[in-house]
Specification:
This protein is of the alpha/beta class. The chain contains 17 helices and nine strands. Helix 2 packs parallel to helix 3 and helix 9 packs across helix 11.
Length: 408
């Protein structure tokens, strides 16, 4: 395309900038405009993707027909089929009249579907049918209708990733992507950042009859180094804030730093670790690990309690020698002599200690300590084998040894 033709297009649509990527996007749009193909515009949010569909329509044979721009992400999922494909009277609550929908109303014209990556899967299937043969069925209708609409779509979603995750139909992607146009992010447009700042500053000065803000050379370099995650939309917002709030019309880096976020080192919404392994999936895995560890601890406690109960039963005399369960008597445990009868319920056995006046008492801690000592002796001081014999984990054994002062 000749430079003069390109400049005429920029003036007509108020496009500011001379970077090669922008010029290439405009060149592709003008070449494909007369050819009735679907176009997919790719670019980050705020880069000005909505300009190209208008260029495509105005330079096509459909320029005298209707042009509709629809933000698919702004329409509720429950009503989007009705909005796009229309409905018949009485098909749902509130459908008091027939509706053509955008595909019916835009017949012979152009339909711009912004944020097409947000469409529900069911709506994607309907859209694919329209693109393939121009047929659609309104909500609640039984007859097929025809339409002749050129579809231009745009998205800031990574479509390839959405396809791999099952959120976007691959066949629809290829049908929309007959021609792809890439809009460059603001951070890659170099001197265009300064030109856009001047335009927005001049518009504010003319609209509100105020002195125009201008940048120092250092402030210009600061603007060009910034990553601009919000692209042109963010630049315009900052320029408007400076025009209104800055008392000094000469903008220095010190003034500019008050309006530009200082923690935006990248365009990511969250800071990723260098290895890139931070994700919500990893956070869920951590929670799962914590839950599994808690469950393991509970199981260890259950096994330990069961072991202690069994050990208590082993050191007790047979039940027919025990006194009635109304008393609780314990006798000292000689080294090699059997214990005197112990009569106690399991609830009493799990109490902190048995207290009997004038009789040497023995509680669960004493029993547990004796069992640990004997197990260590039998296994030659090998703690791992002792833990296996007692049916408890190594960690539980070490905790008990520390509790009883046997870890020295």
């Amino acid at each position: 395309m000749k430079t003069s033709e390109l400049q005429n297009i920029k003036q007509r649509y108020n496009i500011v900038g001379n970077c090669e990527a922008l010029n290439n996007a405009l060149d592709v749009a003008l070449k494909v405009a007369p050819i009735d193909l679907s176009v997919l515009i790719i670019g980050e949010s705020g880069v000005g993707k909505d300009i190209l569909p208008r260029v495509l329509h105005d330079n096509s044979p459909r320029r005298r027909e209707k042009y509709f721009a629809i933000n698919c992400g702004a329409i509720p999922e429950g009503t989007i089929d009705s909005e796009l494909f229309g409905h018949v009277k009485g098909s749902f609550t509130g459908a008091i009249n027939d509706s053509l929908g955008y595909f019916g109303a835009a017949n012979k014209g152009t339909l711009f579907l912004d944020e097409v990556g947000e469409l529900p899967m069911a709506t994607q299937a309907r859209l694919l049918r329209v693109l393939e043969n121009g047929e659609y069925i309104p909500v609640g209708a039984t007859e097929v209708r025809k339409t002749d609409v050129r579809v231009v779509a745009a998205t800031n979603v990574n479509i390839q990733k959405a396809i791999s995750e099952g959120r976007f139909r691959e066949d629809l992607y290829y049908r929309l992507n007959q021609v792809q146009i890439q809009m460059p992010p603001l951070r890659d447009r170099g001197e265009d950042i300064i030109l856009l700042f001047r335009l927005f500053a001049m518009q504010m000065a003319e609209k509100y009859r105020m002195d125009k803000v201008v940048l120092t050379e250092e402030a210009k370099q600061m603007l060009m180094r910034y990553k601009w995650p919000g692209n042109i939309r963010q630049l315009k917002s900052i320029t408007e804030q400076l025009s209104i709030l800055s008392a000094d019309r000469q903008i220095t880096p010190a003034i500019l730093s008050q309006f530009i976020p200082q923690d935006q080192e990248s365009t990511q919404l969250m800071t990723l670790r260098p290895e890139g392994d931070h994700s919500f999936e990893n956070e869920r895995e951590i929670l799962y690990k914590i839950l599994f560890e808690l469950r393991s601890n509970v199981n260890d406690m259950r096994r330990e309690i069961s072991t202690l109960k069994k050990q208590i039963e082993d050191v007790q005399t047979p039940a027919h020698q025990a006194k009635p369960l109304t008393t609780t008597q314990l006798a000292p445990l000689p080294a090699m002599e059997p214990m005197r009868p112990i009569a106690a319920t399991m609830e009493d056995a799990e109490a902190e200690e048995y207290i009997e006046p004038e009789v040497e008492s023995l509680n669960l801690n004493d029993l547990s300590r004796q069992m640990l000592e004997k197990a260590l002796v039998r296994n030659g001081g090998n703690r791992k084998k002792a833990a296996q014999e007692l049916g408890i984990s190594d960690r539980t054994l070490y905790r008990r040894l520390k509790q009883y002062g046997l870890d020295k």
